[in-house]
Write a structure and sequence with these properties.
By secondary structure, the chain is α+β, with helices and mostly antiparallel strands. The protein has a single domain, classed as Transcriptional Co-activator pc4, Chain A (Roll), CATH 2.30.31.10. Helices cover about 20% and strands about 35% of the residues.
Amino acid sequence: MVGGGAVDLLHLVAGGSPELGSSVRLRVLGRQRPGATPYNDYLDAEFTVTSSFANGRIELYLSPEDLDDWSTALNELAAYRDIKWKASSGCEFQIELDRSFSVPVPIVTVTDSNESISSIRLWLDAGHGWIDALHEQLRQVRLAWPNEAVTRPRSRSYWD
C-alpha cells in the first residue's frame, strides 16, 4: 500500500456520534502500488461496521471504475432513490431510504459475498446533510488519490 493517511469514502453514524451506537465506514487506506498501468490506480480499503449487536471488518480494493459507480450511486441517492453498489472485490453496499420521517433515514446493508458470506443491516439516523457529506467524502478521496495511469489514447506526436 502506498499513500498518505486514510480517508473516508463513506462514514455514516447513527445520531451523528459513534458513542451512540451504530456506524458504517468505508475507509480508503492508500494506493496498492504506484505506476503508470491502470491496475496501479487500485486502492486498498476496508469496511468497518459497528453496532450494539454485531461488529465486522472487510478488507477490499477499489478500482477507478468503482469510484465512478459510487459517484453515480450518490447522484441516485441525492434524487432520493435507493442504491446498490458493488465493489470490484465483491463487497456489496446498499442504502434503502426510510421515508417515514421528515429527513430520509438510511437503512444500510453491507454484504461480504466472497469470504464470510454474511451481511449486516443497520438503520442509521444520520441526521441532516448526510447525502452531501457522502459527496464530499468522495471528493476528498479523489483529491488524495487521483488516477496516475494514462487511460486516454496517446497523441500522434507521441509515436513520431
